[in-house]
Amino acid sequence: MKKTKQRNSNYSISKTEYLFLKKIEEERLIIFTPKEIMHILTWKSSKIHNILQQLKNKKIITNIKRNTYTITETINEYLFQIAVESISPSYISFWSALSYYGFTTQQPNTIQVVTPKQYNTIDVNNHKIIPTKFKKERFFGYQKISHFTIAEKEKAIIDSLAYPEKAGGFKEVIKCLKNSWNELDKKTFIDYLFKFKSTTLNARVGYILEELNLKSIKTQLPSTYIKLNTEKSIHKKNVENFLYKNKRNKKWHIIINDNLKTE
Q: pTM higher than 0.70 for the full model?
């Protein structure tokens, strides 16, 4: 294999390590575990673990999490695939997905995924893979592109509107909504909004769409007034002043604590 020969010339590796790396390339494994390697090579467990440790010490492979590895030089190329395979099931969303689709010019330095399970943040060679746990009912609206799963355009926007702090902040999400609107399937967008089952999200999105002259929707609203920008906190002692200074939209039950202007 071309890559293996090149790697063999760049590093001082043994014949056994060479065969190990060559087999990984032949099997096209982006991430791998000792158990998978044992099945493929039929080598003893002790031999596999020794080779893994040697290759790790030489920084030829990188330990993603417990008993899970990848080839170091391929991390940047396969980062999305590494993310969804190391946190499974999952799909790329929030700012990572918005950047992938070109809805933002920002390049986030983290990979954000949505998963119905509990996972910790994973550090991979100066990259952070950050999982967000969703209820199973909200784990939908994704597709497979190349070798990784990613939120559909409509769901990436919905997820980001629900958690703007995970997509660059309120103003950045509004900007992405404007940039993406002509590319979105409007029916799918509204279907996904209602399927998310959040009256507070419905109210915010309904207000935003109306104010931006994008679309008018009818939906169930929360019983109390909610903030437009959830990132702006309210201290209890300032609640009365806050409500006095900020307008309230009766139609959508929204406290207008921010505007929709973006640079």
A: yes
